[in-house]
Amino acid sequence: MRWSGTAKALHWTTAALILGLLALGWVMTRADMNAALRFDLYQLHKSFGFVALGLVWLRLIHLTFRCAPEPPKSRLERRLVRAGRAGLWTLMILAPLSGWATASASPLEIPTLFFGLFKVPDVVRPGEAAFALASSAHFWLTALFAALICLHAAAALKHHFIDGDDVLTGMLPRRRSGPSGLKKVRQDNVLKRLDEVRSKRF
Amino acid sequence: MLTSSISIYRLAAAVAVLTAAGAASAAPRPFDVAHAQVAFDVNSIGFGKTHGEFRSVNGRLSLDFDRPQNSRVDFTVATGSIETGSRQLDDYIRKTFLDAGDFPEMRFRSTAVREIDGSHVDVTGDLTLHGVTRPLTVRVSVDATERGQPVRFTAVGVIRRSEFGIRAATPIVADEVAIRVATQAVPGR
User: Fold this and answer.
1) How far apart are CA A190 and CA B92, in angstroms?
2) Which of A35, A40, A109 sits opposite B48 (nearest CB)?
3) Residues A14-34: pLDDT tens digits?
4) Could A39 and B88 be called an inter-chain contact, meaning their C-beta atoms sit closer than 8 Å?
């Protein structure tokens, strides 16, 4: 079973964004750097976080019209798939929302500028207690998210290398089977010429 | 951008020289201020140290090497000219900490100069920042090479921003802000 092109595009775009955001979040909070660079990285993290939130919202809409692969045969696998999917969807929504709450609650009161273009409204009033709660929620949710993404990727690799089925390849861009377009026309002409030469000789 | 305005001081010094003619051997001499760097460092919890500089500085110096206590200094810094390396951080500091719209300038005017040793003086003066004027003493190291050559000064001091009514983001961003002013004084023509 293959996913639609839109589903694949949304899957891989959000995947790239989420992995980038996890890496950026790790670097900006832990690495030693000057405050100016750190400030810019935080703003970048927040901006891309909103892009991710927007894309997840799009994916949710698309979910209702998608063509999903068949559910697995075994009951255990069906349960695992359902739990994994529910977990990923929940975290795709909660991770950016908790980040938004963290940015809003920060006592630093730094405006969140979407790529420097416009100010994103705050969803929580700034305060020490709200910030402590939101930031630890954001940390643990994203840590759980990272763990679940690892399991998700491990499961896909297990399908490909151990089960030998098309679960992983079904999410990969469709490979063109054989040459197409101009290349194909040229190849046909060459074959035709070859046939002519052959028929003349024999 | 660095501008130096000296005319008023030069005039004042000239008047002083004329009126005190013969009475004193050397009056404070006006100096052009060149290569002035006004920098600050402030610590924070979790975000590291923020270093910034102000690009627009107006300075007036009147120096008396024989009697340093007669020297005077008057610096005006445009608060909006802050540079940290991040434009968004600059904007944030301008709005949240400096209120640059309401307080476009900060100013330091010396009231007393005390010689510590041959190459150090303590300069006490009034610092006006964020609309609040408070006394501040900075330790200045003087690097005078030869007469007629630029004299290098490096002034260091610490202010408590809360004393100037700048309380945003405490205690995450430290109250104490280290100030460092480096400048060269070129003898006035």
Assistant:
1) 67
2) A35
3) 999 999 999 999 999 988 888
4) yes
Sign of CA dihedral B162, B167, B170, B174: negative
Residues B48 and A32 sit within 8 Å (Cβ to Cβ): yes
First to last CA, chain B: 22
Q: Is residue B1 part of a domain?
A: no
Backbone torsions φ then ψ of A174, nearest 5 degrees? -65, 125
How far is it, in rounded angstroms, from Cα B32 to Cα B150?
Answer: 9
The CATH code of the domain that includes B104 is: 2.40.128.110
Domain that residue B167 falls in: 7-187
Tokens of B82: 């802050």
ipTM: 0.74
**Which residue's entry shows tokens 């709660």?**
A133
Residue B2 falls inside a structural domain: no
**Residue A112 β-bridge partners:** A120
Task: Using a CB–CB cutoff of 8 Å, tell me whether B93 touches chain A.
Answer: no
Judged by DSSP in three states, A175 sits in coil
Q: What is the rounded distance in angstroms from the CA atom of residue A175 to the CA atom of residue B162?
A: 64
Q: Are B77 and B57 in contact (CB under 8 A)?
A: yes
- Min Cα–Cα distance to chain B from A88, Å: 30
pLDDT in tens, B85-107: 999 999 999 999 999 999 999 99
Task: Provide the pLDDT confidence category of residue B68 given band limits of 50, 70 and 90.
Answer: confident
**Cα of A10 to nearest chain B Cα, Å:** 31
| Identity of the residue numbered B74 | D
**Shortest CB distance from B89 goes to which of A29, A39, A107?**
A39
A31 and B CB contact within 8 Å: no
* Domain tally, chain A: 1
A39 contact residues in B (CB cutoff 8 A): 47, 84, 86, 88-89, 92
Which CATH number characterizes residue A125's domain? 1.20.950
pTM for the whole structure = 0.78
How many structural domains compose chain B? 1
Whether residues A35 and B169 touch (CB distance < 8 A) is answered with no
